[in-house]
């Protein structure tokens, strides 16, 4: 039986998890995330274990992984693993090149990081990705 995400995270190393992270970084490239963080003034002032860019991708990953066994730490683990697999973890997580020496934070740290970054960056990313569907005057556009 296939894994659709409804029962939680897939087995270790499952390719669709990495593909899912790839979709995130394709729709929301790091340059766009950084620009949104600048515009919303939510870039961290000092180096952190959970930089704002990683927190934004973490929030996006929470939308994708749901169900049992999808706690904060498990989702972040999949996200960082997928980013590392894509070679996009360089400079993303503090602690060393490619995240070497970086350890997963606890759930309460992730909750505080989400509160620190807030909702504005994710709202702006959604508006960017959604974009206008129709133009004024077009039939069915309101």
Overview of this protein structure:
It contains six helices and no strands. Mean pLDDT is 77; it is low at 1-7 and 93-99. It has helices spanning 15-27, 30-39, 52-64, 72-85, 107-117, 120-130. Helix 1 crosses helix 4 (72-85). It has one domain (15-124). With 142 residues, the protein is mostly helical.
Radius of gyration from CA coordinates:
16 Å
> What is the number of domains?
1
Main β-sheet: number of strands, strand sense, barrel status? none
- The assigned structural class equals mainly alpha
In percent terms, what proportion of residues is strand?
under 5%
Number of helices: 6
Q: What's the β-strand tally?
A: 0
Give the overall shape, derived from the CA principal axes: globular
Report how far apart the termini are. 43 Å
Averaging pLDDT over every residue, what do you get?
Answer: 77
* Helix and strand pattern: HHHHHH
Detail the poorly predicted runs: 1-7, 93-99
Assembly type of the chains comes to single chain
Helix content range of the residues, please?
40-55%
Could you name the key traits of this structure?
0% strand; mainly alpha; 142 residues; disordered N terminus
Task: Reconstruct the topology from this structure.
Layout: H1 15-27, H2 30-39, H3 52-64, H4 72-85, H5 107-117, H6 120-130
Helix pairs in contact: 1-3, 1-4, 3-4, 3-5
Task: Tell me briefly what this model is.
The chain is mostly helical.
């Amino acid at each position: 039986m296939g894994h659709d995400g409804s029962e939680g995270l897939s087995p270790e190393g499952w390719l669709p998890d990495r593909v899912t992270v790839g979709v995130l970084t394709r729709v929301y490239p790091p340059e766009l995330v950084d620009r949104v963080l600048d515009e919303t003034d939510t870039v961290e002032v000092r180096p952190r274990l959970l930089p704002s860019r990683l927190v934004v991708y973490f929030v996006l990953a929470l939308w994708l992984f749901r169900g049992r066994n999808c706690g904060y730490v498990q989702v972040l683990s999949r996200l960082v693993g997928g980013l590392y697999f894509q070679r996009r973890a360089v400079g993303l997580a503090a602690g060393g090149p490619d995240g070497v020496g970086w350890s997963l934070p606890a759930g309460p740290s992730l909750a505080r990081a989400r509160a620190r970054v807030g909702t504005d960056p994710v709202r702006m990313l959604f508006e960017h990705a959604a974009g206008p569907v129709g133009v004024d005057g077009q039939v069915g556009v309101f």
